[in-house]
Amino acid sequence: MANEVTAASTRNPSDLTVCLKKIQRAINQHNLDALTECFDPDYESTFPIHVGRAFRGHGQLRTNWSQIFGAVPDIRAELLRSAEKGDTVWAEWEWRGTRVDGAPFLLAGVTIQGVQNGRVVWGRLYME
């Protein structure tokens, strides 16, 4: 049972880990098109702590990340840890940068994502 959820860093990268790394690279390159490609067109995003932020689809994903890239032009994503089971991947993130007004930006937490065919189809974000 203990081996069912394995830290991604202890073995060869799986498709799920590759998907996370693509997301990280797209964020760090501020590449909205590459980021969008990491997600299924019907991607369903939920924020259990902030229910009103839930959305579905590329349109809102692009709007959200356009705003983030505009407000935090030097944003960098660090994937601290990840684990997976089946088609689900857990990831611990830190997203850091400086807002255009000079204030520091830090968003940290965990995402749980379902991945199919190399794309995230659903996500639960616990980021603050």
Determine Rg (CA atoms, Å).
14 Å
- Shape, principal axes of CA atoms: globular
Helix content: 25-40%
State the total count of DSSP E strands. Answer: 7
Termini separation (Å)?
31 Å
Biggest sheet strand order reads 1-4-5-6-7-2-3
Count every helix, treating DSSP H or I runs of 4 or more residues as helices: 3
Task: Describe this protein's structure.
By secondary structure, the protein is α+β, with helices and mostly antiparallel strands. Helices cover 27% and strands 43% of the residues. It has helices spanning 15-28, 32-37, 58-71, and strands at residues 6-7, 39-46, 55-56, 76-85, 88-98, 104-116, 119-127. The protein has a 7-stranded mixed β-sheet with strand order 1-4-5-6-7-2-3. Mean pLDDT is 91; it is low at 1-12.
Task: Produce a short descriptive summary.
The chain has helices at residues 15-28, 32-37, 58-71; strands at 6-7, 39-46, 55-56, 76-85, 88-98, 104-116, 119-127. With 128 residues, the chain is α+β, with helices and mostly antiparallel strands. A 7-stranded mixed β-sheet has the order 1-4-5-6-7-2-3.
